[in-house]
Amino acid sequence: MAYLSVAVPVPLRQLFTYTHSTPLEAGVRVQVPFGPRKLVGVVIDVIDEDSHEIENVKKLKSVEAVIDEYPIVDGVLLKMAQWLWQYYHHAPGEVLHAMLPVLLRKGEKAQLVPEERVRLTSVGEQSQSNTLSRAPKQKAFFEALQTSSLSAQQSRKLYGAPAVKAVIDKSLAEIVEVVPELKPKIWLSTMKVAQKPTPDTEQSVAIAALNRQQDNFAISLLEGVTGSGKTEVYLQAIEPLLAAGKQILILVPEIGLTPQTVSRFEKRFNIDVGVLHSQLSDKARLRVWQRARAGELGIIIGTRSAIFTPLKTPGMIIVDEEHDESFKQQDGLRYHARDLAAMRAKQHSIPLLLGSATPALESLNNALNGRYAHLHLTRRAGGAQHTQLHVLDAREQPLHYGISQALLTIMRQHINAGNQVLVFVNRRGYAPALLCHHCGETVMCKRCDRPYTVHKSQNRLQCHHCAGTRVMPRQCEACHSSTLVTAGTGTEQVEDGLMSLFPDAKQVRIDSDTVRGKDKLHSTLDAINRQEYQLLVGTQILSKGHHFPHVTLVAVLDCDGALFSADFRAPEKLAQLVTQLAGRAGRAAKPGEMWLQTHNPHHPLLQDLVNNGYGHFARHALTERKAAGLPPYISQFVVRCESIDSAQAFSFLQGCRGVFTSYSNELEMNGPFPSLIEKRQGRFRFMLICSHQKRAPLHEALRQSLPFLQSLHQAPKVRWSVDIDPTDFS
Ligand SMILES: Nc1ncnc2c1ncn2[C@@H]1O[C@H](COP(=O)(O)OP(=O)(O)OP(=O)(O)O)[C@@H](O)[C@H]1O
Ligand SMILES: [Zn+2]
């Protein structure tokens, strides 16, 4: 009889002991009884029979079924899991579930599933391709089949479904189900490096430094201004690794993962790139997972959770746009993929490369204090010039749909010169509020106590906090007046306005209302680069790493709100946004400029950015953080609590504060106070921020306190969670 320590997917911060006739390897999935349910758990360890860890031997249940013949979570990923549940104080079973593809969580086989392939029939084998010479696509397809069978999906993509069908209908080919074989390093058979630009001096220095790190753990920050050729550095730095049969894992922001990014890597090396993002089907995700694990994929590009992809021959991890907020998971297991990447690179003894034009202050600090190697690209690649930033004083200016006359004039010049203009608006919808012109009453979402956003095109109001919607009211609920007016400007209104101000220019709006689904965004981006539009209006989406060679002007309509946020990270986020937006302009031959329209033209943050750039701003912001005793100079966690009963949520956090105080008088505590969004979906939201100069005592205090927090009498009645190294206080 063996005793197994199993991670079971339940929200409890512990492992569970089960018995089995023989010991099982760590990383094997098992089906276990849990109360009335049967769950898929992962074996973490075999416990020694004499160990005092085993209590109540008679009560122990046994494993019902062993799912895997061999471990599907390898040693490094198991270590990572352990680190995750300890560092984030999370339930082990939930950690392992988060790490596995959905189908494996459900207990499906980890072996490859059969795939549809097209191959020649015996008739086809005896036929000549010139019988198809009147149908060139069919002929090309047939000729390809003469060399080898092809996946049905790939065939339809390459030759078109009608051609594939026609060849099959002529009995020349047939579809068969085959269990594919996985071959490690298969990319070496097709790999061929395409023509590449000669790196400039700074790029060469960076590439050489990265080449020296092969087979060693090291973290580098590549701080390179927008358009400086960071991607080119990645491409040249990974080339020798790929050629040596090593796999490269590249993490990119949620919205930055475009077919253009993927094809750049595919084209350079003439290899198949594995892609992982949130909109992939479960089956497709599992397939990439399997191919990566078998060592068949040389490059895997994915968003946050791709950091859990198993690798057979790891060579390097790259985190592109490493400052991006989407690398932090904001619910459930609140991990930061950048931190995990560091942890993982260390386990594999491979280098980690972080790249950004606007590094997170955390990363910059590590580069400045020597913990990371610091690589610089200060010039734009291919001779492109830096974008000129300017502040535009909007005070006392008449605004047309939120745009001043001076800005309209500048926009006109750029459009007349045949260039594209990007207009950034920080909110989607028509207007952020609807109010009564007679009594001033604002139409509010009662569940969130926030004004509804007007969506004129849908003739509805939408709450941007809970996504609740309602029809547009005809009269004020308070005074019944029928004169309702909008306040503030959103993308829809700017789009309307620009249509009347620039009737000759074609424009496109890009926000989450207009680009639902990944394909829509991609086709729109392609159309922009074909110069089908002169005016681009949009939200944050437009700032994310896109290459717009024809944009020469970026206009920011309003950044005043962000200048006065209560969130200490707001200046950093604003500086990153402004810099990334500016980076969309002047990327090719034509120089670019950016105008920031504001009512606070002398604000020090704006002045610093405009005159000195992000690098200067960030270094100054670090000294301010240090003086104020804020991260990255201290460690933090936040306990959040939500309840329909505001007093209960507050008193739970007060209880937490009491527990922490009794454990340690060294913790600095702020709160409980209301979150920046005080109410959402009918629940009042509070938080308690806990800080300490050192990470270890802070985490130890939390670890010791957690059981007591769980047993506070309000705990079962409220929703609460712990967020380690929080980045978002909304
Ligand atoms: N050494 C070089 N010589 C000529 N062109 C180059 C060189 N390096 C890069 N480029 C080109 O310059 C453009 C910008 O490069 P790249 O996309 O790599 O920059 P980036 O720093 O990743 O951009 P961003 O962070 O702003 O998205 C690309 O079109 C790229 O092909
Ligand atoms: Zn709401």
From TrEMBL:
GO terms for cellular component: primosome complex. Zn(2+) 1 binds at residues 436, 439, 476, 479. Its EC number is 5.6.2.4. Zn(2+) 2 binds at residues 445, 448, 463, 466. GO terms for biological process: DNA recombination; DNA replication initiation; DNA replication, synthesis of primer; double-strand break repair. One of its GO terms (molecular function) is zinc ion binding. Keywords: ATP-binding, DNA replication, DNA-binding, Helicase, Hydrolase, Isomerase, Metal-binding, Nucleotide-binding, Primosome, Zinc. PROSITE patterns: HELICASE_ATP_BIND_1. The keyword Hydrolase applies. InterPro entries: DEAD/DEAH_box_helicase_dom (IPR011545), Helicase_ATP-bd (IPR014001), Helicase_C-like (IPR001650), P-loop_NTPase (IPR027417), PriA (IPR005259), PriA_3primeBD (IPR041222), PriA_3primeBD_sf (IPR042115), PriA_C (IPR041236). It holds the Pfam family Zn_ribbon_PriA. SUPFAM superfamilies: P-loop containing nucleoside triphosphate hydrolases. Gene3D superfamilies: P-loop containing nucleotide triphosphate hydrolases, PriA, 3(prime) DNA-binding domain. It catalyses: ATP + H2O = ADP + phosphate + H(+); Couples ATP hydrolysis with the unwinding of duplex DNA by translocating in the 3'-5' direction. Binds 2 zinc ions per subunit. It is an enzyme of class 5 (isomerase). Component of the replication restart primosome. Initiates the restart of stalled replication forks, which reloads the replicative helicase on sites other than the origin of replication. Recognizes and binds to abandoned replication forks and remodels them to uncover a helicase loading site. Promotes assembly of the primosome at these replication forks. Belongs to the helicase family. PriA subfamily. This is Replication restart protein PriA. The lineage of its organism: Bacteria, Pseudomonadati, Pseudomonadota, Gammaproteobacteria, Alteromonadales. The gene is priA.
